Amino acid sequence: MRAAPLLTTTALVAFAANSLLCRVALRSGSIDAASFSTVRIATGAAMLLLLVGLRRAPAKPRWPGSWVSAAALFLYAVPFSFAYLRLGAATGALLLFGAVQITMVLAAVLRGQRPRPMQWAGLGAAFGGLIYLFLPGLSAPAPLSAALMLAAGIAWGVYSLRGHGTADALAETAGNFARAVPLVLLLALATLPALHARPSGIAWAALSGAVASGLGYAVWYQALRALTSVTAAVVQLAVPVLAGIGGVALLGEQLTLRLAAAAVLVLGGIGMTILGRARAA
Predict the structure, then answer these.
(1) Which residue of 34, 109, 110, 184 has the fewest C-beta atoms within 10 A of its own C-beta?
(2) 252: left (phi over 0), alpha (psi -120 to 50) or beta
């Protein structure tokens, strides 16, 4: 597929944009975290259902997805938004990505896969990078916000594991987003007194849901047709890097030595784990 590099790059930029859009919306105070989550999930569901409906062949089953996967999606999206109240885009993306990948590796170990020494070394480096990021100091992230982002990463890792090998990823994702809509609406009702949203905040959240999430996943699924599983895992290492570049260039965030060192450990460790898995296959 000649368009694979362009599709892959577009999808990775979209995934990184989720961190930037959430951060700019919450930092400006134009929307609260619960409202951002609600608008993001609702507009993402609308876009995905539209894309599925535009296909010539109807999706089967007629109402794909599951409530368990929708709950995992909800448990990713909500902590993600609340974490970005106090996290920078780069820090949040690194914590999220590290937690996702470590969750998936540990799940493979629990299923009985025996990691090679290179994989154990990579996993240890990634863990070490996250621990180093948490060490006390002026540049350490807010503990509660960091914990929320790690929780979001674990939930997304579970969501990804549940969707592995599905026959129609786009339809499954659309169904899961649709099922997550009532969950975020319940959250909005529970936090009603604290809800606030200006048009600009709603617009940022809608861009995150419809474009960066909905269209982003659709483009990614197209790109996956031309990528091996190892290549797909490796190229995702670019997402925290892109988020970091965007945070510095667009949001004026500072790249600290702690964050840079943690990124080298986490991303390098994950890269070692992926390559070790490929050699073991």
Answers:
(1) 110
(2) left
